[in-house]
Amino acid sequence: MSEILVLVDHVDGAVRKPTLELLTLARRLGEPSAVFIGDASQGAETLAKHGAEKIYVVDDAEIKPYLVAPKAEVLQQLVEKTSAAAVLIPSSAEGKEIAGRLAIKINSGVITDAVDITADGDTPVATQSVFAGNFTVTGKVTKGTPIITVKPNSAAPEEVGAAGTQEQVSVTISDAAKSAKVIKAEPRKATGRPELTEAAIVVSGGRGTGGDFAPVEGFADSLGAAVGASRAAVDSGWMPHAFQVGQTGKTVSPQLYVAAGISGAIQHRAGMQTSKTIVAINKDEEAPLFELVDFGVVGDLHQVLPAATEAVTARKG
Ligand code: FAD
């Protein structure tokens, strides 16, 4: 069976959920092999549990201080070593940069932001949602080893139990790949909420909040959701840019997206349109977002959200 390389996204050794989704998708194509750059002692078991037959560990202190270029070189060397049939990478900003660099190095095609992958014989077929979600495109890489980046929440991670055989790999990193270095990294203040791009539920607020995000945050917390914002809310200084969903913010694809006081401009839709279920709360029944939603509530978010929060909290008992 052909080997499918999956680049592991982790935070200080703890594997992030999008990687587990990639392992599940990789099993449709062949035998998943995880590529762990860093200390895999904490994450190896999780990777094996979710289907990694092999785990290539590149624990090289030389790589950590640098930006993405060395990671692309690691993958290049592993593709050459394993003759992998495909490489799957999480669709983060970093993941997409690695994918592009790798494609140049191994002379392959790359598909970014896939929301699903199926197999056509030996060839991966990627589904993308494009033009703000107005079109669904299926595509194949026709040159070289296919490289596909996949958006978070594109598959439910399955626990299958695999061998997870670890192999330490040493790689050679070129001087050119070390030309940009991380000089300082400050972790974002912990909010206790899930990361926006990974969350299964996102509750976002827009200009309609009038700057009062308490109802949005209260409802998000009752559901264990992440909080997002429209650009209007960010530009007004009500929320930091890290919370912005849309064309110039983050792309989210949760199971449930709740938009409160957001009109539904195309640039906002671009960041949330692939959400599985979309709910809008807006006091204007003509708001464009209502064209897209699965459920719509015409009403004032300052009344609807606290009532919804109370109902969710009551159900939890
Ligand atoms: P508005 O369009 O002003 O809508 C507010 C809504 O709240 C209205 O529908 C109103 O009926 C409703 N409302 C008001 N009060 C209440 C209430 N009490 N209860 C319920 N509903 C209420 N936007 C993004 O979001 N993300 C992006 O990444 C992004 N990138 C952009 C990039 C470019 C190049 C450009 C040109 C624009 C971009 N925008 C982006 C901006 C986008 O075009 C819209 O201006 C923005 O999304 C509007 O935000 P909003 O829906 O919160 O505000």
Automatic annotation (TrEMBL):
Cofactor(s) of this protein: FAD
Subunit composition and interactions: Heterodimer of an alpha and a beta subunit.
Species in which this protein is naturally found: Nocardioides massiliensis
Statement: the UniProt record of this protein carries the keyword Flavoprotein: yes
Keyword Membrane: no
Protein's name in the database: Electron transfer flavoprotein alpha subunit
UniProt xrefs under PANTHER family: ELECTRON TRANSFER FLAVOPROTEIN ALPHA (PTHR43153), ELECTRON TRANSFER FLAVOPROTEIN SUBUNIT ALPHA, MITOCHONDRIAL (PTHR43153:SF1)
Pfam families, sorted: ETF, ETF_alpha
Keywords of this entry: Electron transport, FAD, Flavoprotein, Transport
SMART domains: ETF (SM00893)
Domain Electron transfer flavoprotein alpha/beta-subunit N-terminal, first and last residues per copy: 4-187
Biological role stated in the UniProt entry: The electron transfer flavoprotein serves as a specific electron acceptor for other dehydrogenases. It transfers the electrons to the main respiratory chain via ETF-ubiquinone oxidoreductase (ETF dehydrogenase).
Protein family (similarity comment): Belongs to the ETF alpha-subunit/FixB family.
Cited InterPro entries: DHS-like_NAD/FAD-binding_dom, ETF_a/b_N, ETF_a/FixB, ETF_alpha_N, ETF_asu_C, ETF_asu_C_CS, Rossmann-like_a/b/a_fold
